Structure prediction request, 216 residues.
Amino acid sequence: MPQIFGPGANSLSRFTIITLLLVAGLTLAILMAYQRSSYVTFVGVNRPQPVQFSHKHHVGDDGIDCRYCHTSVETGDNAGMPSTQTCMNCHQYIWANSPYLAPVRDSWATGKPIIWTKVHDTAQFAYFNHSVHVAKGVGCTTCHGQVNEMNGMFKTETMSMEYCITCHFNPAQFVRPKSEVFNVNYAPPANQAALGAQLVADYKIESLVSCSTCHR
Prediction:
């Protein structure tokens, strides 16, 4: 019976298997890089808004507290967006005729709310509660970055499960005193490990890493 496979068949088989493994590995690497890219995560991408609102001006220059605009951040799962009334508390007197604020004046006149473009969005099938995190000493800038330096709002973190679980595994490295939660200029001290461990004990923070913590 004649030989079906020639002497080079083994080499060809090895080459084929190795090539397939390399292609599979490269494909996986490309997909992982794509999922972490700003095209998907929007990290560092300035999202256009109906009003050119500057956190740098309002928070950094004027010193407006986060809670003035985001009124439900301490009590609800959602931080809340400012109503037109909140904007007009100042802007019926300051920059009252600025063309940049025309959408605000239109909203005020018609009663129709401004539709803001959401920047920080919770992933599908995930539950997040702002009030719980605030009550446990998680600062605004921990997740949202130095908003006091942002002319336009953009994400500084992916808000992915990988990002969230890093804190949930070891909350001591991120928590701060409750009095500093809304301090945008807060910097972790040199003894963060010891301070964090103490705050975790004082605030009764649990390392919640079960699926049902966020996926309900």
The mean pLDDT is 93. The radius of gyration is 25 Å.
